[in-house]
Amino acid sequence: MVCKMKNVVLVLLFVLPLALADLRVGFYNSTCPQAESIVRQVIQKRFGADRSITAALLRMHFHDCFVRGCEASILIDSTAKKPSEKTAGPNFSVRGYDIIDEAKKSLEAACPSTVSCADIITLATRDSVFLAGGPSYNVPTGRRDGLVSNPDEVDLPAPSLSVSEALQAFTAKGFTLTEMVTLLGGHSVGVAHCGLFEDRLSNFQGTGAPDPTMDSSLVAKLKGICGNSTSNDPTAFLDQSTSFIMDNQFYKQIMQKKGVLQIDQELAVDKSSAGIVSRFASDVNSFKTSFASAMVKMGNVQVLTGNAGEIRRNCRAFNQPK
């Protein structure tokens, strides 16, 4: 898989904008040879204690790359005078910032002001995917950290969109329909708050009845989770069987009307995407190969390289002039 993914990386770098020529596998080989192993050790330790970090990092990576590009603007903390992306509604439940902090602290001790926070997110996500049973793949590094974090710019595809509506958001970032279906396969290890799907359980689109595309046993199960919890907005697994494993069970379930989010279920119903779902459901290796390729491509969205941006010393704050 690793050898195959090297070819994928080379192809992607060829077809994407020339600015990405500054990204390359092994970017830190001379400036911080242990960079990737330091990140990997942090992720391995955390994953051993909490397997949910894979879903957390996948979500963080996606939410970062789909706003200003993969330049770590999501990591910036708000100040009294200036709010950051963290204050935008879609990012309220993003977590895992402390994992990035831990990796950054170790990297700063080994190689001060060398490894970007944007690269840490990408590497940490890659490592957590592998630990969860997903593919092993190389990612090019050399990203720089952004200098802007504006909550007003956070406009992410909602979970209630149709396939065609969601595809507009993905094609705007350069992704195909197959790549969108692939990336949504990250829901194999995710959870969703009840507030994002509760309308499907009893009053779908104002009908006063459950969504007819959802399996009745799943409706009953989710009603129990959402209605019998002391939490204000409890969560449910998006994959009902292998909730912490990056496999193709998610696709098998949405083919059985067991998609929790509307967009997930739409993937199996819409004629444009149903065939892709069926292929991934029947061939786990096809899904994993496609997922590795799509993740490499996502990590290349609107990156800053060369002298653009900066290398933050603290991932939560822009560097102050020396």
Summarize the structure.
By secondary structure, the chain is mostly helical.
How do the helices and strands line up, and which of them pair or pack?
Blueprint: H1 2-15, H2 35-49, H3 53-65, H4 97-110, H5 117-131, H6 163-171, H7 177-183, E1 191-193, H8 199-202, H9 216-227, E2 235-237, H10 249-255, H11 262-269, H12 271-282, H13 284-298
Antiparallel strand pairs: 1-2
Helix pairs in contact: 1-13, 2-4, 2-5, 3-5, 7-12, 7-13, 10-12, 11-12, 12-13
Protein name: Peroxidase
Active site: 63
Keywords: Calcium, Disulfide bond, Heme, Hydrogen peroxide, Iron, Metal-binding, Oxidoreductase, Peroxidase, Secreted, Signal
Report on this model:
The chain has helices spanning 2-15, 35-49, 53-65, 97-110, 117-131, 163-171, 177-183, 199-202, 216-227, 249-255, 262-269, 271-282, 284-298; strands at 191-193, 235-237. It is an all-alpha fold and 322 residues long. The chain has two domains: 2-154, Peroxidase, domain 1; 163-294, Peroxidase, domain 2. A two-stranded antiparallel ribbon has the order 1-2.
